[in-house]
UniProtKB/TrEMBL annotation:
Record-linked SUPFAM superfamilies: PH domain-like (SSF50729)
InterPro entries, A to Z: PH-like_dom_sf, WH1/EVH1_dom
One Pfam family per UniProt: WH1
Region Disordered, residue ranges: 1-31
Protein name per its UniProtKB record: WH1 domain-containing protein
Superkingdom in the source lineage: Eukaryota
Alphabetized PROSITE patterns for the sequence: WH1 (PS50229)
Organism of provenance: Caenorhabditis nigoni
Gene: Cnig_chr_IV.g14775
Domain WH1 residues, every copy: 44-159
Amino acid sequence: MSVYPPTPTIPMMHGGADRRKAKRPPNVGSRELNSQENEMLFQLVGPDAVSLTAAVVQLLKSDRGSWRVELPHGVVSLVKDYAQRAYFLRIFDILDERVAWDFRLYKAFQAQSFPQCRKLLAFEQMENGEDGVVVGLNFFSEYEAAEFKEHLDRRHAQERKSNTPGRPGMPLMMPSAGSLSFTFLFSHSQYFSSTIR
């Protein structure tokens, strides 16, 4: 059963709220984090939301045709927020126990991947109804980048299936292909595992 359709709100005869909550999917953490680090992530996600997938990333923003690092490290999660009835991309700083970046997925949201840089997903951050800036998620792991993209694609497909056609997402204006060949700029193992006891 897909985790992406809206959660039913029909009350059950006995313990309806508990049963609805029990049907929620479990939190999914990052394979690059240990179990203690993933538990810290789940605490930050909160009780009224679920992490559908998570990964260690850098947040990038386009700047005159090239990338600039906006956040040097964090854990991104595709969050299904039941209280706000919406999906979000949230980057958590698990050591400082805070949300470092929060982005509500808009209608027809899609992320773009690149064969020449498999650790990168990019999309447009629309602000105030106008074209926004191009945002990049630079993943520590190619595997997690592919898995994250798969979750975003499934969510998009489910949205298209369940909704009437709406305003399509804005076309993505990407930095030049030559600017995509950068490497991950911090040591994941040094940043996370060595600081948590």
